[in-house]
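Usage example:
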Amino acid sequence: MPEDLSIGALSQATGVNIETIRYYEKIGLLLPPPRTEGRQRRYDGTAVRRLRFIRHARDLGFSVDAIRDLIAMAADPAASCSGADAIARAHLKDVERRIAQLVALRDEIARMLDHCGDGTIADCRVIEILADHGQCLHEDHRSPA
Amino acid sequence: MPEDLSIGALSQATGVNIETIRYYEKIGLLLPPPRTEGRQRRYDGTAVRRLRFIRHARDLGFSVDAIRDLIAMAADPAASCSGADAIARAHLKDVERRIAQLVALRDEIARMLDHCGDGTIADCRVIEILADHGQCLHEDHRSPA
DNA sequence: GTCCATATCTGTAGCGTTTACAGGTATGGA
DNA sequence: TCCATACCTGTAAACGCTACAGATATGGAC
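Running the assembly step on the lines above writes:
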């Protein structure tokens, strides 16, 4: 039978930093695990799976709050899938919005660079365009959140 | 002749929050402006242009540090343009990297949703895929910074 | 049992970029 | 003169960690 894992072993098993694991516990994403007599944490297979779930969702850009919701839903296998679906769908929208912004941004910067010769600052298009939003193609570019 | 602007008027003129303006001053992005007898800030046209420059660069996703460099360069019209060019070029690369990550991400989430019927959590693909990274198309997706 | 290197513990502070508040003061018009 | 509004400073929150300091536990070699 497999021994329970120390926090370091859990970190290795999941690729999540030790500090981050403790942080997840503090904010309630991970349940406080049992401790040894010396108050060191010991994790079982359930904790490993849960942390992997969290890490994957984080990698996919889900917010901690969204993950909290997903975990709560995952805990009830009989419940409808629509909640999880909605969270993922909202996240998808958000990602698509960010992509659109970044693409506009990329075009803007590329255009700026296209016009930049090897001259002096005095005729540098980068500086000039930054100084005057009116020269932008896109009226409303905002950096993503 | 135009009066100097209060911080509120400057905020309106540039679309930058009052709190943000004071923050920019604190971190040295904006010069401390002259004050009235009652110690309220008064901004002239130069400050307005500088803040517009900053806002535009921020909208384009440049970091505050990069903007600091750009401002320093803009202050010397005789200098070579290559520094500003390099900053913009590096930023372009970064934006393109982020786009690529987000696109991979979008595909992953979309694929997850494609497989999600209207069933229960027990057979919810969203939850399931999150729980098992092995089911991902992309081995190495990370959320952008 | 003893020693020691390593791992882990708690608590706090920092990152970057704002935003929000609390509690006090200045300004400008009626 | 009065008062609503705008402004002031300083501090803390937000996000999701990361990094430290200083103390304690663990597990293996002797």
